Amino acid sequence: MFPRQSGKNELQAQLEAFLLAEFCEQEVELVKASPTWKPQSLNAMRRLERVLRSPRYQQAYPWVKEQGYIYRVGRARLFFLSGAPVSNIVGATANLLLELDEAQDILEHKYDKELAPMAASTNATRVFWGTAWTSRTLLARELRLARRLEAEDGLRRAFVASAEQVAAESPAYARFVDEQVRRFGRQHPLVRTQYFSEEIDSGGGLFSLEHQARLRGAHPRLLAPAPGRLYALLLDVGGVEEGATGAEALRGLLEAAESGEGARGAPAPRPGRDSTALTVVEVQPPALAAAPSAAAGGRAESHTHAPLYRIVHRQAWVGVRHSELYAELSALAEAWRARWLVIDATGVGAGLASFLQARLAHVLPFTFSARSKSDLGWRFLTLINEGRLQDWAAEPQAAAARLAMEPPQSGALDPELCQALFWQQLDACQGQVLPGPGRLLRWGVPDGTRDPRTGALVHDDLLISAALCAVLDELSWQAPAEGRSAVNPAADPLAAMGEVW
Q: Rounded to whole angstroms, how far apart are CA atoms 79 and 33?
């Protein structure tokens, strides 16, 4: 088990070239499987070729390449295969050595059924190379087995390197890892696994007490924007009225916008379901973030290469129709002089997002999928670990008491209750890292989760709303001129529609 960029692949190439030369007069076969053919197997082949072309091997041990994936030195051969789930690799033999590169990304079933039998005829040595990830990977399973066998007979089988060992040999590597720790935090999953060879749990509570401590800020909640500051709105769109389809919801928006009133005739919303949740963040661009602030005790804050985000306001609406929210959200965006509005445009949210795009100049639709939500979760964790996202100051005990006394009802929820709900959702959020090289993070509050104190259902709408802050991190931020609104209302699209109709 090696940290990233610490010489694992170079060691593999040197070892493979040595074995091909050492056994060149024997009919031996080595097999090396990687999680993917392109680029991992191809990269491994290029590294081996570079070593075989070196003066040490080129003249004394000439080599040839056969069928595009076999390297032969004399009578010894090394086969490169793909360990991807759909690859067809049954039939190869590894009578000297079976290597599994990036074994944490090869499925256990693939290894057990198709790869392991390749070493059966001679009980050949198996080597599992990789970098730490979760405790449920093939690499982690074989590491536990190796350590158990070590304890039985004293023969060393487990070799685990960490960033400290590599840093002792390479000052440049030490500086790089120190920078990653400062940027992401020592407990960030990627720092722990990729550099310090520490496995993480593949499931469980996603936000630790350390995460929650980093997220708590010292700034006050705001009722209105401060002059000369930048603001963005983050909107997670809840479900529409019971029984309404996406087309019906869009029709309701059209009717409401045309008449100036809420949509009529729709069934009443169900209480207790998720809400449409709005989070307002103040964005401090890098230049402002580098300046000493009162919240930082007069000290310049870290991560001056990236913006800081302060949550200053929240609102939520339970069971309120999108047609009724359209005008209110438009007014809120203009009142806060929002530089951007990030909106969940998935499913029924697409209609509301479309109308807000037509009304406001800077709207960023975000569509949720397994991949996009995973990426959002990882980036959200990074913002928290870096200390670049902070909530306004509040007492956790007071928030819990507020929930116990005033469980959310249908209609608009006030900001203090929304904050209490946010911290409840943060604490209830679970995360699971799915197997495979994609590093997909499945996260959220599990369906059916209830508050142990009140028995009320716990959702994740306010949590998702806050997480949309990670979308802002891909933008370029500049401070606006004093008193100038960053929202430029576009022409009313309904006027043009009316002419067509």
A: 8
